[in-house]
Design a protein that fits this description.
Muramoyl-pentapeptide Carboxypeptidase, domain 1, L,D-transpeptidase catalytic domain-like, three-stranded antiparallel beta sheet, globular
Length: 676
């Protein structure tokens, strides 16, 4: 054991001395330049992979995504980001095991290698042969990598400056300017650094553009298989073998048409920014049809820029966000520019519809706020939503259920076509009540479900109501059940030696019986997940008439539960719509398993391009975009229409405006509906 450790230690020291120039590579005179580079690569990477072992405490696995809730009231954050590992309690002695130290930092010169695990796997697979140079120096692959990322990164909503392209260009030029004759050959150490940096750049850019933000050190072959993504190590090796590095880079972004359309929209909105963006509409009283105000002049210009209001001149704007290349000013030939006429009202309604607002044709506070979101913020919002596409698997399934939280809609997709859509109610805009983003397989549904009330909802909302009305629980079918939850040890009252006895502990649990007032309605749809979130019916149907539907504790209430139940049970002759209704009438809980699992994607899309080619934006209700300008103000709701109805669903309601007129349709998303 001691000699083995000594050998590893000496190997590490030798590699360090070689890379720093204190020790020359053995037999360098008889080795080709590529062989010298290969040997240095092997020494450096093998030394990096062989840290010493010692006793270290184990830690809990890293949690990626939002905190894991146990009930419907779960808080959520956007899972297109990776949240840091939560601090954990110090392990006990029994938890301490012999494990390897975390791998040290791997560097090339003074530059940190960010994708060290993938990079090491790449070189090991090719026998540590250099990838980007040969005996004559750097290969054209290197230029292809730098030039392609330089050209493609901005198109993909990324920043080319994040990938040290200037550093690579400088290093390439320095190497190529060195004489490479027999008397003064190229320095193999410089080529090692160049090779490592070029490989790391391919892998880091490749990871970001294909899978989004993720822990690079976790991306082994199993990780790529689990996430249904192309293994970047294999992609790079294939690109080397076929001399198609540029093509490989261009093929890395998500293949979905929804992503491609967002990329095209990003280019158009960047062009709008380059031409000066759009003007702000000043604050003031609401603007209605028939009003005459100098603010209408700026409103007209604002709507012309993004195409809701077209010009009659030859410089008229094309479809949404496609600039003409000329500075946009109002065409006074259109008539009285200060008059809010029917044409302007129609343009305002068009703007409201594509921003998910009540399409009343009136410029109130929320519409004004949406108009005044800057073009720069819209560019960033498009890039953020492109990032969300990268987190999805390569294959969404031949049929799947997509929920878009900010759009308050559910769409069933079959063979890339929407076959059913409905409104939904999602989690409240408050801590611990947001609907989380995730995906899971729907496996079964429950007819006439019981509602086992989460402790926090019972204590914070329902028990206070029962104290005000002693008949509240009876009216709404709630029953308090005393259930065993464990045991504890207490002193034995009959003992004199202080011995203990075991006794069971109980907890009072509030449960609502199946029936018309049950908070889950008549059916719930289960797709087991760590968040405890599911789809369900609701007795509070009036909430679907709201424009902003953030009323739940995290679960998702759906507008057409019977239609969805009939669809997911399609293929089972025994579960027709009539049978489903007859079973519901019996008011007895019944679990029904689906003929085959159906993927459910609960996502957070605040920007997408619909099937008509129109860019759609939605209010960033949870603030996940991290763009303050895209989170619009929410007005207070009108009083409920019926106290009986609101009583049947005893959830605290957030402040949301009523829909002056219901949205004409849940906004359809592109081919595979930005989903979700």
């Amino acid at each position: 054991m001691g000699s083995r450790f000594t050998n590893r230690f000496l190997l590490a020291i030798l590699a360090l001395l070689c890379t720093q120039g204190f020790v020359s590579v053995p037999n360098a005179a008889t080795q080709s330049l590529s062989d010298q580079v290969s040997e240095l690569l092997r020494q450096q990477l093998e030394a990096w992979k062989t840290p010493s072992s010692e006793v270290l405490p184990t830690s809990l696995p890293e949690i990626v995504g939002p905190p894991l809730p146990s009930t419907e009231e779960t808080p959520s954050s956007n899972t297109t980001s990776t949240s840091p590992t939560a601090p954990t309690a110090a392990p006990t002695e029994a938890q301490s095991v012999k494990t390897a130290k975390p791998l040290p930092k791997l560097t090339a010169g003074k530059e940190l290698i960010r994708a060290a695990a993938m990079l090491s796997r790449f070189y090991e697979g090719r026998g540590y042969r250099p990838a980007w140079s040969n005996d004559a120096g750097p290969l054209p692959y290197a230029d292809a990598l730098i030039n392609t990322i330089q050209a493609e990164a901005e198109r993909e909503g990324l920043h080319s400056g994040d990938y040290r392209l200037a550093k690579l260009n400088t290093l390439l030029q320095e190497v190529r300017q060195q004489p490479s004759d027999a008397q003064q050959p190229l320095d193999p150490r410089t080529l090692v650094d160049l090779d490592l940096l070029l490989t790391d750049t391919f892998l880091t850019y490749g990871a970001r553009v294909s899978v989004g933000k993720a822990k690079l050190d976790r991306m082994d072959a199993a990780w790529f298989e689990k996430h249904q993504k192309a293994d970047l190590v294999q992609v790079l090796q294939t690109a080397m073998d076929t001399d198609r590095v540029a093509d490989a880079i261009k093929a890395l972004p998500p293949p979905y048409s929804g992503y491609t359309k967002l990329r095209e929209a990003l280019a158009r909105y960047r062009d709008i920014v380059a031409h000066g963006g759009w003007p702000l509409v000043p604050e003031g009283p609401k603007l209605h049809m028939g009003d005459r105000d100098d603010h209408v002049v700026r409103l007209r210009v604002r709507l012309q820029v993004t195409g809701e209001l077209t010009l009659k001149s030859r410089h008229a704007s094309s479809r949404l966000g496609a600039p003409s290349g000329n500075k946009r000013t109002h065409d006074s030939s259109d008539g009285d520019s200060e008059l809010f006429d029917a044409v302007v009202a129609q343009a305002v309604r068009k703007f409201q519809r594509r921003h998910g607002l009540s399409a009343d044709g009136i410029v109130g506070d929320t519409t004004l706020a949406a108009l005044n979101v800057s073009a720069e913020d819209r560019v960033q919002q498009l890039a953020v939503n492109m990032e969300r596409w990268r987190t999805l698997p390569a294959d969404l399934g031949p049929r799947h259920i997509d929920v878009n939280i900010p759009n308050f809609t559910l769409v069933v997709v079959e063979n890339d076509q929407p076959v059913m859509s409905m409104k939904v109610v999602v989690g409240k805009m408050m801590e611990r009540r947001n609907t989380p983003t995730f995906s899971a397989n729907m496996t079964h549904l429950v007819l006439n479900p019981y509602w086992n009330v989460p402790k926090s909802i019972a204590e914070e909302e329902l028990f206070p109501l029962s104290r005000k009305d002693s008949q509240y629980f009876a009216k709404h079918g709630f029953v308090i059940r005393r259930i065993p939850v464990g045991e504890k040890h207490i002193p034995d009252p009959n003992a004199t030696d202080g011995s203990l006895i075991s006794t069971k502990t109980y907890q009072n649990v509030l449960r609502q019986q199946p029936g018309p007032t049950n908070a889950l309605g008549r059916v719930k749809f289960m797709f087991p997940n760590a968040h405890g979130v599911y789809l369900h019916d609701t007795p509070s149907k009036e909430l679907f008439n709201r424009t902003v539907r953030t009323f739940s504790h995290g679960c998702i209430r759906i507008e057409k539960p019977l239609d969805l139940a009939e669809y997911v049970l399609r293929g089972t002759s025994e579960w027709t719509r009539d049978v489903i209704l007859a079973t519901i009438e019996r008011q007895k809980e019944k679990t029904v398993w689906l003929p085959e699992p159906i993927p459910v994607y609960i996502q957070y899309w605040t920007a997408w391009v619909d099937r008509e080619g129109t860019v759609q934006f939605r209010n960033d209700i949870y603030g996940y975009d991290q763009l303050p300008g895209t989170r619009l103000p929410i007005a207070k709701p009108a009083p409920p229409q019926s106290s009986a109805k609101s009583e049947s669903q005893p959830m605290v309601q957030p402040e949301t405006p009523p829909a002056t007129q219901p949205d004409s349709q849940p906004a359809p998303l592109s081919e595979v509906r930005p989903i979700l």
